[in-house]
Every structure is written in C-alpha cells, then in structure tokens.
C-alpha cells in the first residue's frame, strides 16, 4: 500500500459537533482527494487539493471544508456534523502529472453521527 | 455534467466462468480509465488501468478494453475464483484545469463455488 494514513480510523460523534479527519501521505504526491462512500453511491468526491493551499470542490462539498498547509497533510472538517454525514471517508493521493495518473487510497475512516 | 455509468450493479457467476463489467463515460476528453477492487471493509485497490491510446490491456486473468468512439470500457475476468468476489469500481480521469476522477457506482461480484 502507498504511504497513506488516516486518523482517526473510527469515530462516533453527536449531531452539531465539529469533526476533523486527517490524511497523511509520505509519497510527496501533489494531488490529494477526499471521498465519501455510501451504499448505492460508490465513491463521491468531496474536495480535492492540487497543491499546498490550493483546493477545489467536488460533487458533494456542502457541509465540508478542507485545508492543506503542508504537502503531506490534508484535513477534512465537518463544521457541524449531521446524521447524513454518517459514512466511510477515504483519502486518496495521485501525482497526476507527467503521465502518472494512478490514484491510491488510504485505509478509510468510519464516521457515525448520532 | 461529468458522469460514469456502471453495469451491472450485482453479478453472480459460477467459479471458472467469466465475468464482464461495463462502464460508460460522458467526457470525451477523459484519457485514463482505472479499475478498482474493494473487499469488504478494505480500501479500494487499483487492479488494472488503460489509457486512451490503447484499446486493450491484459494482466493474467483480468483484461480491460476501451472503445473511445462509443465512450465505454469494460473489465473482463476469466476463470473466476472465489477470491475474486468483491466490489469493483470503474473510473474516468478528467482534466478541466485540474485533475479529478469520476467513479461508477460499483458492481458487486459474487463467485459461487
């Protein structure tokens, strides 16, 4: 597996509380992505980053924000968690340049909002 | 908007038979198409990919074909084994100033012993 870790791996939180998920890579890849995975929906892109402090929205970005202050770290924040944000969250990395398009996933974080 | 459709959503085959999963994409500028295998409780793992300048690629029992004119690509697994049981995802790689991937909704493959 590529050098990608996510923390925490499991979290239970209450509605209305803020939550931050962390993705850390040791591959020095330029691109980092956050996806959520729900039954019947596959992998949906939340936000992604194409460099330090460079981020953009994906298809399901409402209720989420991100930050990338270092190449190796990409944070996903739920400002005020809702039950609809109960999901498995995957981080992924890609070099995405020079013909190296492969994307690799982290181990995932299972988030439950009660 | 950008979209990838994947069929079927579930597929059951007898051990030793072949399995085929099909995907269609909407963005004609897409030039890279990976396939991922996800076992229960695990992360998606890249198993094979194809680029737009290639029509077919094989790796042992798995192969991917691409038809750029029709904008569809397929995963073929031959001589299926119980360990092939998993969820498979296709994706299309899109460049619109920055790079991102659009995923299909997945196919649950069951190989019956």
What does this 3D model show about the protein?
The complex is a heterodimer of chains A (114) and B (113). Chain A has 114 residues and is mainly beta. Chain A has strands at residues 4-7, 10-13, 19-25, 31-38, 42-51, 54-57, 64-70, 73-78, 87-94, 103-105, 109-113. In chain A, the strands form two sheets. In chain A, strands 2, 4, 5, 6, 9, 10 and 11 form a seven-stranded mixed β-sheet that branches. In chain A, strands 1-3-8-7 form a four-stranded antiparallel β-sheet, with no helix packed on it. Chain A is globular. In chain A, strand 7 (64-70) and strand 8 (73-78) form a beta hairpin. Chain A contains no helices and eleven strands. Chain B is an all-beta fold and 113 residues long. Chain B is 0% helix and 59% strand. In chain B, strands 2, 4, 5, 9, 10 and 11 form a six-stranded mixed β-sheet that branches. Chain B has a five-stranded antiparallel β-sheet with strand order 1-3-8-7-6, with no helix packed on it. Chain B is globular, with a radius of gyration of 14 Å. Chain B starts with a strand and ends with a strand. Classes of the chains: A mainly beta (114), B mainly beta (113). The A-B interface holds A 1, 31, 33, 35, 40-45, 48, 50, 56, 58, 90, 94, 96-97, 101-108 and B 6, 32, 34, 36, 42-46, 49, 51, 89, 91, 93, 98-106.
Task: Give unreliable regions of chain A as ranges.
Answer: none
Q: How would a crystallographer describe the biggest sheet of chain B?
A: 6 strands, mixed
How are helices and strands ordered from N to C of chain B?
Answer: EEEEEEEEEEE
Mean pLDDT over the full residue set of chain B: 94
Key descriptive features of the protein:
heterodimer; A: 114 residues; seven-stranded mixed sheet; four-stranded antiparallel sheet; 0% helix; globular; B: 113 residues; six-stranded mixed sheet; five-stranded antiparallel sheet; 11 strands
Write the layout of secondary structure elements.
The complex is a heterodimer of chains A (114) and B (113).
Chain A: E1 4-7, E2 10-13, E3 19-25, E4 31-38, E5 42-51, E6 54-57, E7 64-70, E8 73-78, E9 87-94, E10 103-105, E11 109-113
Parallel strand pairs in A: 2-11
Antiparallel strand pairs in A: 1-3, 3-8, 4-5, 4-9, 5-6, 7-8, 9-10, 9-11
Chain B: E1 4-7, E2 10-14, E3 19-25, E4 32-38, E5 45-51, E6 56-59, E7 62-67, E8 72-77, E9 86-95, E10 99-103, E11 107-112
Parallel strand pairs in B: 2-11
Antiparallel strand pairs in B: 1-3, 3-8, 4-5, 4-9, 6-7, 7-8, 9-10, 9-11
